[in-house]
User: What shape does this take?
Amino acid sequence: MSTSNASPRHVPPLLWLAVVVLVTINLRPFLTASGPLGQAIQSATGMDLRTFSWLTLLPMALMGAGAWLAPSALQRMGARRAIAFSLCLIGLGCGLRLAGSSSWMLIATAGLCGCGVALVQGIFPGLIKRQSPHNVAPMMGLYSGALMGGGALGAQISPLAVQWGWSWQAALAMWVIPVLVALPLAWHALGLMQAKSSAPRPKGGTAAPAATSDTGWLMRRGRTWLLLLSFGVMNGGYASTVAWLAPFYQTHGWTATQSGSLVAILSIAQAASALAMPALAARSTDRRPWVLATLLMQIAGFAGLAWWPDAFPTLNGIVLGMGLGGCFSLFMVVALDHLPSPTQAGALNALMQGGGFILAALAPWIMAQLLQLSGSWITGWLYQASAAAVVGMLMLRFNPRHYASAMRAPEAH
Assistant: This one.
């Protein structure tokens, strides 16, 4: 299989780095800003805990469903228009939150943002493998770090905006601003990329459709489903933390700003770990020891929330954040490791994220159900610790020596 048709035109390295950071930083603030403002939102809209969980559940489910459509959108629209369209959806969803005085409007705008995020998350890993073929691990670390860094900004700045006198609607809508910064830069930089496999379908050639259509067999591989399951169960911890960490500590007497600061500290730890772990793991083709280390951090962090939430909350948040962020970025690298073709590796990554985010979306709702049934947050946090342990057992099967046989492409006829 030839991949020469995927060689992009040169994009200045600093411009490419700026695009990766500025686009990716828009993918989480709309999610993380809601938790610290939960009391104000629930008071104004009358949401109960289960309804409030839909602010995380719906966009993450749509991130999953939309990621499955990303390879098709990439072929039909090209990277430039697809990313621009995604940013416009995120910006529109954030901007409409100025009118978010009802629960249905907030849930609808969360869904709109989730649709935009889905395309970016489904397209960017493949673009990174194509544009930076010799630096996939550190670039995926940068991508994941920017993702978590955006979450830190949302958790910290939105509660501060309310403290400064803004309405909670304006504090949620303010995240349209970084979208407007990223959009023209991404439009310019992605216009320089002329990889045939990521361009709109040409009239006189067949290279792009062939490269893209040669991914349907991925769904028939057990490894695809194992990646999907592992990523989804693992990422449920992130979804639950985003949705419930701030409200949890507010039941312990913390203010919105204090709980938002804790979420921001956790997100900064996520970003640092997401950036560092792939670079550390790049020394070996076997990423499993590093993934298992991050899962142990998650188990320790969730156990701390269950049994000793007031003992060392900041330290516990840092440990949990390092586990969540590092594990996320390492999973992105592991998925890309399975296949040499950027097109097929990107499609596998999109499939993993697609089903994974749908599974992860259920975690905040499950925690809300456990809270309603037990009357205690302990059961929910221990559920997340158990989920991380299960992923650890599944991860033992990801031996890089078996990647080629696990993902062998069908023979051409």
User: Anything to note?
Assistant: Residues 54-95 form the longest helix (42 residues). DSSP finds 17 helices and no strands in the chain.
